[in-house]
Design brief:
The complex is a heterodimer of chains A (113) and B (140). By secondary structure, chain A is an alpha/beta fold. Chain A contains five helices and six strands; from the N terminus they run E-E-H-E-E-H-E-H-H-E-H. The radius of gyration of chain A is 13 Å and the shape is globular. Chain B is α+β, with helices and mostly antiparallel strands. Chain B has four helices and five strands. A five-stranded antiparallel sheet of chain B has the order 1-2-3-5-4, covered by helices on one side. In chain B, a hairpin with a 2-residue loop joins strand 2 and strand 3. Classes of the chains: A alpha/beta (113), B alpha+beta (140). The interface between A and B is medium-sized, with 22 and 24 residues.
């Protein structure tokens, strides 16, 4: 099962995907990301606290989204990864190319101009 | 040895996942190994669906075996010859702008597994992925 919620906190869009981000779920997250970008949003926080599982299909969405956000001069920060998801980020070098924070507060501070 | 053969389609993933989880539980595989098994299963099956059969009809068989403190998953398909172990590793040192989208699945599989073996047997690809599961044996 997968779902993705989003909320706006001042200028920051907080996206909270929950459940299993596998090849079946990845297109749903991709659609949501594109919608928000097309809407002109620039500051994104991906709160992964509810994400139990991520496969390469999900990583692919994160990477493509990050590239688009960067192109649009926006910012993207991750927070609150569970151990299994953090392990996948480490193995794939995602912790080197992304800003990964331990808490939501830390992530929101990182996004403030 | 337990096995399950299903059409190589994304909507078979859930059944394969339940099959592997049930077998791992029955064999008393340490629970911390289960997320690794699920990730390997997902990566290899999606690879099969998208790359080996390229959207064409085909089937995938997953076999599970547990022996001597090792739990193995074996993937059998009738796609064109493909040895995922020969794929060059992705360059993880590149900055965001230059990072390739894709190629990370096999890299994850190699990191999760303790042993991997590929062979081509007539018209079939056979990939065996093994995990050390000794803790379970000590507990039982």
């Amino acid at each position: 099962m997968f779902d993705v919620k989003h909320e706006q906190q001042e200028k920051i869009v907080i996206l909270s995907p929950g459940g299993r981000l596998d090849a079946v779920a990845a297109p749903e997250l991709e659609r949501k990301c594109h919608e928000l970008l097309d809407d002109g949003k620039k500051a994104f926080l991906l709160d992964l606290a509810g994400l139990d599982f991520v496969a390469s299909a999900g990583l692919r969405v994160f990477l493509a989204f990050a590239k688009l956000v960067k192109k649009a001069d926006g910012q993207l920060v991750f927070c609150c990864l569970r151990d299994e998801v953090l392990e996948v980020f480490r193995i794939t070098g995602f912790t080197d190319i992304f800003s990964v924070c331990a808490s939501r507060k830390e992530a929101i501070d990182a996004l403030q101009p | 040895m337990q096995s399950l053969r299903l059409p190589a389609r994304l909507d078979s993933l859930e059944q394969f996942r339940a099959f592997v989880a049930d077998t791992a539980k029955r064999e008393q595989i340490p629970s911390e190994l289960v997320p690794k098994l699920e990730l390997v299963l997902e990566e290899l099956l999606t690879n099969l669906v998208f790359h080996a059969y390229k959207g064409n009809d085909g089937s995938a068989e997953v076999q599970c075996s547990a022996e001597g403190g090792t739990f193995c998953l074996r993937f059998v398909d009738e796609g064109p010859p493909f040895d995922p172990l020969k794929r060059p590793p992705p360059d993880l040192s590149k900055p965001l702008e230059e990072r390739q989208i894709g190629g990370l699945g096999i890299h994850l599989v190699k990191n999760m597994a303790d042993r991997l073996e590929y062979r081509r047997d007539r018209d079939r690809n056979i990939l065996t992925v093994c995990f050390d599961a000794k803790e379970a044996k000590r507990e039982t």
